[in-house]
From TrEMBL:
Belongs to the isocitrate and isopropylmalate dehydrogenases family. It is an enzyme of class 1 (oxidoreductase). Keywords: Amino-acid biosynthesis, Lysine biosynthesis, Magnesium, Metal-binding, NAD, Oxidoreductase, Phosphoprotein. It comes from Wickerhamiella sorbophila. The lineage of its organism: Eukaryota, Fungi, Dikarya, Ascomycota, Saccharomycotina. It holds the Pfam family Iso_dh. Residues 15-368 form the Isopropylmalate dehydrogenase-like domain. Pathway: Amino-acid biosynthesis; L-lysine biosynthesis via AAA pathway; L-alpha-aminoadipate from 2-oxoglutarate: step 4/5. Its cofactor is Mg(2+). This is homoisocitrate dehydrogenase. One of its GO terms (cellular component) is mitochondrion. It catalyses: (2R,3S)-homoisocitrate + NAD(+) = 2-oxoadipate + CO2 + NADH. The keyword NAD applies. Its EC number is 1.1.1.87.
């Protein structure tokens, strides 16, 4: 479904970094490892695992949320990684910043890719991918506070660049083309008609933010036109656009109308979590942080301290993120095997309490492994 960030097809043993983080991250990351260890021998893959610390708990112990050693280990020894979850303090904590945001910057992971697809009959018909620019927008975290006669003022920089917008537009176009191609090969695997064009929807607020969001919108349109002029394969993509508030409304009303959505960092973050409500739970939605040299699979949920240690955390998002990581590393066959096993698990109803079931984390993992 998605383009490979780097082709490791000749590699028989992959070294995968495991970064559990905080809370239930320490319960679901072992699920991803178990899935990889139980892939059938016919897939021809073996794995080595290296665990490394990061997160708010590590910060409280050491004063560092993301140790340099963790970053260097990933760069020097790993082809990919799985990242669990981190706690996010609601008030400012001096010296603390999100380790996953830092990892994205340090490893050049400029795209966050989140497929959202309905499986169970109770879900709204949904089959879309949100491609979120991962490096800039308000997430550059350049803020300041100062005093004025009428009180304090807080300001934040919203940075949009042509280069980052062009890069994320090109990835979104490639994903749209490959999704269209997969529908030709296996029409039953998608909710979209194999005869319909791929749709790329650029989301923005350029009616208000004419400079920043206007640059994002115009750059995506330029990249779309240039790619279509260079290569006929891109002719299958129809470019559409939505103002972000209208996008939220229409995505919830008619999710079946959307295929691939490309958005700046903040809007992509909000849309991704909102889309999870269409398929029942954040606990089933995967993501991948993707660059040209590395990929990190990351479930979309948080650290969920209220259920930590109870063995009821939903491992499906992590398992799907594991498959997504393999897909971007150039291994679509074992990735497809994992997706099908997860779909069968959900249809059978072997689910954790967030989906209305009574299964434990361990029981869900065992059921998916059985279906591999």
């Amino acid at each position: 479904m998605l383009r490979a960030a780097r082709n490791y097809s000749t590699v028989k043993t992959l070294t995968i970094g495991l970064i559990p983080g905080d809370g239930i991250g320490r319960e679901v990351i072992p699920a991803g490892r178990a899935i990889l260890e139980n892939l059938p021998a016919e897939d021809g893959l073996k794995f080595e695992f290296l665990e490394a610390p990061a997160g708010f708990d590590h910060f409280k112990k050491t004063g560092t949320a993301l140790p340099d050693e963790t970053v260097e280990m990933l760069k020097a020894k790993c082809q990919g990684a799985l990242f669990g979850a981190v706690s996010s303090p609601t008030t400012r904590v001096e010296g603390y910043s999100s380790p996953i945001v830092a990892l994205r910057k340090k490893l050049g992971l400029y795209a966050n890719v989140r497929p959202v697809k309905s499986v169970m009959a109770s879900d709204k018909i949904t089959d879309l991918v949100i491609v979120r620019e991962n490096t800039e927008d308000l997430y550059v975290k350049e803020e300041r506070t100062y005093e004025r006669e009428d009180g304090k003022v807080a300001e934040a920089i919203k940075r949009i660049t042509e280069s980052a917008s062009r890069r994320i537009g090109a990835m979104a176009m490639q994903i749209a083309v490959q999704r269209h191609g997969m529908r030709q090969l296996d029409p039953g695997a998608s909710h979209h008609s194999p005869d319909a064009q791929a749709i790329l929807t650029v989301t923005h607020k350029s009616n208000v933010l004419s400079q920043s969001d206007g640059l994002f919108r115009e750059t995506i349109k330029q990249e779309y036109a240039e790619l279509q002029s260079k290569d006929s394969k891109y002719k299958v993509v129809d470019l559409q656009e939505q103002i972000v508030d209208s996008m939220v409304y229409k995505m919830f009303r008619n999710p079946e109308d959307f295929d691939v959505i490309v958005a700046p960092n903040l809007y992509g973050d909000i849309l991704s979590d909102g889309a999870a409500a269409l398929v029942g739970s954040l606990g089933v939605v995967p993501s991948a942080n993707v660059g040209d040299e590395f990929v990190i699979g990351e479930p979309c949920h948080g650290s969920a301290p209220d259920i930590e240690g109870k063995n009821i955390a939903n491992p499906i998002a992590t398992i799907r993120s594991t498959a997504l990581m393999l897909e971007f590393l150039g291994y679509p066959v074992p990735a497809a095997r994992i997706y099908k096993a997860v779909d069968a698990n959900l249809i059978a109803g072997v689910c954790t309490p967030d989906l209305g079931g009574t299964a434990t984390t361990t029981e869900v993992v065992e059921d998916v492994i059985k279906r591999l």
